[in-house]
Amino acid sequence: MQVQTVARLRGPREIGPEQIELPTCGPDDIILGVVACGICGTDLSMYKEGPSLPGAILGHEFVGRIDQVGGNIGSLTVGQRVVVNPMHNGLGLGRTPGAFARQVRVTKPVLDESIFALPDELDDDQGALVEPFSVALHAINNGRVDASDRAVVFGAGTIGLCVVAGLRARGVQDILVIDPSELRRNIATKLGASAVLDPRDGDAIEFIADHFGQDTLSFGGDLRLSKATVAFDCAGARIVPKQAIHALAPRGRLVLVADPHDIPLDDLRLVMLRELTVVGALAYDLEFSEAITLLASRAVDLKPLITHRFALTDIAKAFEVQLDASASIKVIIDPVPG
Questions:
Q1: Beta carbons within 8 Å of 14's beta carbon, 6+ residues apart
Q2: Three-point CA angle 242, 246, 248, nearest 5°
Q3: How far apart are CA 157 and CA 224, in angstroms?
């Protein structure tokens, strides 16, 4: 029996390596050799709270190289580098074994729908960022962004920073970023943010008004308002939706990207009075191909997001590092060879 090392999540903050049998390839399957896999915010949530299925093998932000191809698969070949859309099969999301492993099985892959080939111009590290960049592009698409927009991004984790990069790729020049991490603010500036704020050092609405202009209700009132045309909540913090609503100009758009959980949406009357649009953005739809094209063409460079990498055998330490927003952005896991 051939075995591989995987990382199993057994309970809250309890993850570690384990030896299991290598996956077998059926006629409708392919077997991918994992090249690199990022730790996602979804992985972190399950790490902190525990998986829905104890013993889960997580990992869905990854690049793989095709090791085996089933007899019924005609569009893929051994040796191709690919990324997987996990929304099609749940790979690495808690029930279907994911890519914190040496090898992973993908069942019934469909090229350019559930699996995407990577061009030679796109290296492995940026390939591992295709999935989170697709999340950001979907948020931008849902926000109906164009180059004339004045944008605010609340939260500069991986997704927030990918939103910044995506906005710049769409031609947006005016991008404000609000995040308490100095590391993340610095990367936001490198990716194209025009100004950044540590929310502990100043009022968010005043900061936005300083750059985009102050506004008031036409029929009076002393509310502090601004003139951003689109805002992205990539933080999931309780105060952000209210701040975003006050930051937006009439007919502005608020895109909820981070999971708000039980956060209430305050100031609904202001949403009505200013004719604001509030829209959600869950994962992605058709954005994988665009993400690959932008990264391969070097129109976007997301390598600055990768701050750490660990071997799979050190995955417990890797997750603790990823939890520290002041010191990390994207942690990459390298599989155990052999």
A1: none
A2: 120
A3: 27
* Predicted model pTM: 0.95
Residues in contact with 47: Cβ distance below 8 Å, sequence separation at least 6, in sequence order: 9, 12, 13, 15, 319, 323
Predicted confidence at residue 159, as pLDDT, reads 98
Ordered domains of the chain (ranges, CATH): 3-129+302-334 (3.90.180.10), 136-280 (3.40.50.720)
Better-predicted residue by pLDDT, 131 or 261: 131
**Model confidence pLDDT, tens digit, residues 292-328:** 999 999 999 999 999 999 999 999 999 999 999 999 9
Q: What is the pLDDT of residues 146-190, one digit of tens each?
A: 999 999 999 999 999 999 999 999 999 999 999 999 999 999 999
Computed on alpha carbons and rounded to an integer, the radius of gyration of the chain in Å comes to: 21
